[in-house]
Here is the input.
Amino acid sequence: MNVTLNWLKNYIDFELSASELADRLTMLGIEVESVKHPGAELEGVVVGCVNTIKPHPNADKLVLCQVDIGKTEELQIVCGAPNVREGMHAPVATIGATLPIGLTIKRAKLRGETSHGMLCSEKELALSEDAAGLMELSTDIPVGTSLPTALGLDDTVFELEITPNRPDCLSLIGVAREIRAETGNPLKLPHVDFNEDETDIREITSVTIEAPDLCPRYAARVIRGVKVGQSPAWLQQRLESVGIGVINNIVDITNFVLMEYGQPLHAFDCHKLAENRIIVRRATAGENITTLDEMDRELTSDMLVIADAEKPVALAGVMGGYDSEITETTSDVLLESAYFNPSSIRATAKALGMSTEASYRFERGADPGIVLAALNRAAQLITELAGGSTCKGIVDVYPGQQPLTEIQLRPERVNFVLGTEIETVTMVEILKRLGFDVETSGRGQRVTVPTFRSDITREIDLIEEIARVYGYDNIPTTLPKGDIPVPAPNPSAAVRKCIKHSLLAAGMMEAINYSFCDPNCFDKIRLTADDPRREVLKLQNPLSPEMSGLRTTLLPSLLENAQHNRNHQIDTIALFEIGNVFIRKGAEKEPERVTGILAGQVGEGVYSNPYREPDFYDIKGLVERILEVCGIVDYTLEKTDAPTFHPGRNAAVLSNNKRIGIFGEAHPEVLENYDLPYKAYLFDFDMEALTDAAIFAKCFEPISVYPKVERDLAIVVDQAVLSDMPTELIYKTGGELVESVRLFDVYEGEQVPEGKKSLAYAITYHSATETLTDKAVNALHSKVVKHLNQELGAELRM
Amino acid sequence: MKTELHAIQAEALAALKDVKTPDMLESLRITYFGRRGKLTDVMKGMGKLSKAERPEVGKLANEVRTTLTAAFEETTHTLHRQQQEQQLEREAVDITLPGRKPAYGKAHPVMQILERIEAIFRQMGFEIVTGPDVETEYYNFDALNTPADHPARDLHDTFYLTDGHLLRTHTSPVQIRAMENQQPPVRIIVPGKCYRVDYDVSHTPMFHQVEGLLVDTHATFSELKGILTAFARQMFGDQTQMRFRPHFFPFTEPSAEVDISCTVCQGNGCRSCGGSGWIEILGAGAVDPAVFEAVNYDPGEVTGFAFGMGVERIANLQFRIPDIRTFYENDLRFLRQF
Here is the structure.
C-alpha cells in the first residue's frame, strides 16, 4: 500500500524527515519498501503565463513569447508549439533545469533570437505521451508556482508492506496511529459536519440482514440529487499519488475514504435497486451477477451478496454489480458501509479468483467500529463535492456487535518473555499510544482492545506490541542459559558424510536436481512396465508437465545433467547426487539415494594427465571406494538384468544377501535417449541400506615385525573362471600366512590357448610370529598351486 | 726407507689431484695399495729392517698409509659428489609442464553454504534434525497456527499433490514433528528442501531452508538475538551489524525479520541492498503459545524461539549469481567455480 508524506500530515503532526519516517515505520514492523519523490525530476520547471506572442523574424514555424514566471522581468522564449496562445498557462523549464528526458535547459539562440527557457509539452516532462502541443495548465494556478507543487507532485510516496495481521494499517489514519505510537503526538481526525435534509432515510430504503453470521454490521445512507462528474483536482491528485485511478466524484470519494479510514464503501445508484431496498443474504446456487468489471459470475450458496428485492446487486465486500453502478445519470446514491466476516470474503474472493482493495481489507479483518464514521465522512464529501442532500439518519443494522476484548497483562511476564527490564509505566504508555485502554487491575494491568485491533486477543499479542514500540534494538542481546540437550546418534549422517567426502576426493562433482520429474522419463531409462519406480506421486498444480511428478530415481536427472553438459561441449562428466526420492508405498517414505555418473572422458587432457575414456572398472572403483569408506567388506557382486544397464556390464552389490545398489555401463539405448555420443557409467545406491551395512568400529591388528615374502604366480585358466575365484582359493589354501593376493595381470591372446586366459597374482606371505623360511614358503606356495590345479584346472604359466 | 715413504706420500697426493674418474682412482689405488702396489711393497720390506729402525719406520709407514687412505677416501667422495651433480643436472625437468593433479570434486555451492551454517549451529549445541518433504496441511500450516482461511497462506504458493498431501513450503513443520517426539529442552536446526510455485531469476520452485528451534523453561527474545548475532558474526564476519525488525509470522510472536549490514557496501547503501545498507537474511521470533498447545507443551511452563533462513539467498550474498536457477542446472562450468 502507498501513502504520501503530505497526506499523512493531515492526520498527525510530526517533525520526521521522509527518510527518518521510513526508518521508524520499518522498525515498527511496517516495512517501507521504497521511498519515491515523484516531483524531484521536475525541479526548475515552473508555471508561466504566455503574455504576448510575436512572429519570429527568421522562422515561419517559430514564435517569440514573452512569458511571465512571477519574476520582475518577463522571459523571452522561442516556441514552436501549435497550441501556444496569449494568456495560456504552461510549464516553463527555466535555465539550468534538467528535464526527465535528460535535456538540460541553457540560454540558446534559435535562428538569431535568444530563448531564456523552454515551454514544455507533457511528453517533454515525462508526464504522458502527449507531444502534440504545450501542456495546458489551469489559469487558477498562480504564475511562478513550481510545477511539482502545481501538480501535487512535491510529495514523498512510501510503498509499505503491511503484514497480514495488520489490516488496521491499510489506511492513512492507520499509519498515522503508528506514528502516534512512535512520537506520542495526537491524531488529527477529519472534522465531519454536514446538514441532513428533512426526509428520513427509512422512508426511502431499508436494510435486512438474512445472514448475520457473514454480515455482522451493515449501515447505509442516502444522498439525493447528486451531480456525477469529475472530482476536483486535489482529490484526483490524492488518489493518483497513491496509485488509485480516478473514475467519477462519487466513486473517487468512496476510494478516498477507503484510503483515509481503511473502510471499504460502496455506492449504489439508488434508482436501480428494485424496491429501493437492500437484503444481505447468501446467494442461491446458480444465481448470477455481472460485476463492475463486466464479468458474469456464477455464485454458490456460500457466497454473500448484497441484493435488492429481486437479485444480487453486489458481491458483498468484493465488488459491486455492473447494473447498479454509479453513472453520469445517477442522481440518488445509496452508500454502503459494512463489516463482513473475513473468512467468508476470503473464500468468495478466492473461489472467484478476485482480489480488490475491498476484499483485501475485509478478508484480513476490517474495523466494525469505524463503519459509521467512514459513512459520515463520505456523505460529507459527497454533499460538498457532488452537491445533493443527505437524508436524515442512518440505517445501521448491527446484529453481530461484540463486547470489546479485555486482556490481563502481567508486566513481569513481558520482561520474562523478552529478557528485558521494562518499567510498567513504560508498558502502559506504549499501549495507550497504540489506542488501548489500560487500567491497573490486581497485580497486573487490564487492557481493553480497540475495535480496529482484531489481531490482539492474547497477552502474548500485547507483549509483541510493547516489544516493537519499545524497540527490538533496545532489547538486550544475551546467550541462552539453558541446558544443551544431548543429540541422538545419527549413523546415516555419518555415512552420508563419508561417502560424500570420498566421492569428492575421487573427483566427482556434487549435483543437486529438482525433486520433480517428468512421469515419462522412465521410458528413457528403459524401466519395465511394472517397475515400481513408475509409480510417481503427482502434483495438482505443476509448473510444467516435465515437472509434474516427484522423482523415484535420481538416474534420469543425472543423465539429463550429462546431456546438458555434453550440449555445452563439456565432456569430462563426473557427477553425483545425494538426495531423496519419493516412494508411494506405505507411509510417506522418502528414501535417500546416492547416485553417480561418469561419462565422456577422465583425466585433464594435459601432457602429464591425458584424457582417456572411462570404463567399467572406473565406476567399479568408485563403488569399491564407497563400500570401503563405509567399512563394508562382506559383500558380493552379481550380474543383473536391470534394463537401464548393459546386460553384460553391470553388477548389483549384495550385503547380507540384500541388494544395496547397482552399477555398470548404461544401455546403448539409454545413451541414445539422452543424446550421449559416448558411453556412460552409473551407480545407484540406497543410503539406508548402506547405513545398515556400514561398520565404522575399527580394531587394531598387530603389525608383524618379521619380513614378508612375495611370490608371483601366473596361471592359465578357462575364460569362464572369474578372477576372484583363484583369489579366494589362494586365501583359503594359504590360510592366515597369506597376507594379500593382488591380481596384476590379465592376458588373453598369443601364447595362451584359445578359450583360456592368463591371470597373474602377487601373493604376499607373512607371519605375525616368525621369519618365514624359504622352505616353509615353498611348501605353502606348492600347496596353493596344487589346489588351483585341482579345483580350477589352473596350469602354471611358465 | 723413510725417504722412500715420504716420496710415495707426496707422489700419491699429487697424483690424486689429477684424478677425474672413478677408473683413474681405482688404477691409482692399485698403484699404491694393490698387491704389487708401491706402499704394499714398502710395507713388505719392513721385515728386513733392524729392530732399532723398525718402530720408527713402522710408525711412519702407518702414518703414510693413514694419510693416503684418507686422501683416497676424500677423493672418492669428491668424485661421487661431482658425478651426482652432473647426473642431477641431466635430470632437470621443465617446471612449466603441467602437474598431474589428483582429481578433486567440489560440493554443490548451496551445500557448501548449508554445511557452514550447520557447523556454526552445531558449535552452539544445536542438533541436526530432518523431516519429510511431502507434508500434510496439518504440519505445514494448521499446527503452525495458520488455519485454512488465514491470509498468511497467500504468501506460500503451495504445490499440492493429487493425493491431498503438499510439498512443504518451509522447514517449519519439522518444529512440530520434533516437539511431538521429545520433551524440552529442545535445541535443533532443520536443514532441508522446500517448495513454492515460483520460477524466475530470484526464485526456484525448490529451495533450501534451515530452521532453528530452541525451547526451554526460560528462553527469551534477548537470547534469540544473542544466538542469531553469534551466527551472523561467524557467517558474515565479526564486523557484521544486525537489525531486528518487527514482522509477522503466524507461528511466532513477537516476530522479527533480521537484516545484516550489506556485505557489499558495509552498510553505506548500494545497489545490492537497494540503497538501504541492510540485507534481510532470515525470519525469527518467539514460539507462539498456540504452537506449544498444538504439541501439548504447556506455554505457561516453557518458552522458546525459532528462526528460518533461505540457504540460496545467503549463498547468493557471497556468490552474486544473477539468475539463481543456475544453481540447479548442474552445469560443470558453474559447479567448478565454487
